Amino acid sequence: MKKGILLSLCVALAAAGCGGAQIKKQQAQIQGLQSQIDELKAQAKDKDGQIAALTGEKADLESKVKQLTDNLKSTQDELEAAKKNIDDLSQASQASQGELGGKVKELTDKIKQLIKEKGALSAKLDETEKGKSALSAQGRRAAAELARLRKDSDDLAAQLGKLNVAQATSDKGRTDLLAKVHDEMGPVADSILKEIQGEQAKIEQDGANVVITLQDSLLFTANQAKLTDAGHAFLDRLGGSLHALPDRTIRVQGHTDNATIKWELFGGFTNHWDLSAAQATVVARYLHEHAGLDPTRLEAEGFGEFRPIEPNDTPEGQKGNQRIVLIIEPPKS
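The structure assignment produced for this chain is given below.
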């Protein structure tokens, strides 16, 4: 019997773990953010490599442009010197002037070529600078996104930490409560041990509630709401153990199968609603009038055939659905 109660307690504790779904969700979010962070780190590293390569290319181009600029200046200096020589030798022979004129043309062509090469290199240098600037901007955006994701990850990690603390506190409080319920219900289970062993009764712990399920044959003749002698004796035992829990609310529920109720000449029930409600009321009244339970903490409900726990297409299933259920709730604070 104690083993059965402990099993129910374990089931209830497992149900309490559902609160961990929020924690799992937070953990999944953190893992997702961490993956994004890792990807952005890789992107940022790649951008850094590209920027470094472009920086090197830019330095090389700048060196070439400087060299071309120096060559251009040197050639221009040569040209100016040649022109000056032509002016100075205006009285020289025609042949000397022709030779110097050829030199001037050569230098002029060279200057044009150098200017063209310098323009091309300058354009490439500008393109490189633009590419570097674009990559730098992408790198800055990636770094900003990386910082934002890290902050989100840190915030979620902090939230997860709080949830873990709250969950641990909640689990401890719930475990303590369930353990208390388990201890309090031990005498109740002992009082109906014979019926539990005979599978005519079942006691389960549902969180802080305790649910006792009884086959109605323990208490009533089929389709009747008058207690049998055995039913009196059984409720005396059960009521005595429940009397030790004065602060508990007890909801008595009547349930039936869906078999057609035979009409009786001298009274009887014609539908399952009335039958289930009457049986629940009889049990609640007996617990008050004979076991001394506080009537303000007793409730009677009839559900007819509409909440079956077994299929009604077999005699065994119908028997399982013909039941009285006592839901014992914790004290209200």
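Interim note for the steering committee: Confidence is low (pLDDT under 50) at residues 1-19. The two ends are 30 Å apart (CA to CA).
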